[in-house]
């Protein structure tokens, strides 16, 4: 199992807007080979801190997704988001291999 967490900060007053965007996400990634799950997490003490948590069957399958044209299309759309403050946010990405459960 391969875990990818993308952590990013938004102004606290815009957190609900961003959550709404993710609730309406296209779910194209859900069809990718090896995709297991997606969750959007919100820090309870710092509401402007959000984490996209994704689980993949393997690192190779995750990399196949990242290299796909669909991935590129989705992320190009994000750059065109009307709120440029949100569009310019660059997440901190961390990847993990599940070693026990």
From TrEMBL:
Query: Keyword Metal-binding, does the record have it?
Result: no
Q: What InterPro entries does its record include?
A: ABM_dom, Dimeric_a/b-barrel, Heme-degrading_MO
Q: Which residues form the ABM domain?
A: 2-90
List the keywords (alphabetical).
Monooxygenase, Oxidoreductase
Domain of life, per UniProt, equals Bacteria
Oxidoreductase in keyword set? yes
A Pfam family for this UniProt protein? Answer: ABM
GO molecular-function annotation terms?
A: monooxygenase activity
* PANTHER family given in the database record: HEME OXYGENASE (STAPHYLOBILIN-PRODUCING) 1 (PTHR34474:SF4), SIGNAL TRANSDUCTION PROTEIN TRAP (PTHR34474)
Q: Write down what this protein is called.
A: Antibiotic biosynthesis monooxygenase
Organism, scientific name? Sporosarcina quadrami
């Amino acid at each position: 199992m391969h875990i990818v967490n993308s952590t990013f900060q938004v102004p606290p007053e815009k957190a609900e807007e961003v959550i709404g965007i993710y609730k309406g996400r296209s779910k194209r990634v859900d069809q990718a080979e090896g995709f297991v799950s997606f969750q959007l997490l919100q820090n309870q003490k710092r509401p402007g801190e959000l984490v996209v948590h994704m689980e993949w069957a393997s690192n190779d399958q995750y990399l196949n997704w990242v290299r796909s044209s669909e991935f590129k299309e989705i992320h190009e759309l994000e750059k065109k988001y009307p709120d440029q403050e949100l569009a310019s946010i660059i997440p901190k990405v961390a990847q993990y291999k599940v070693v026990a459960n």
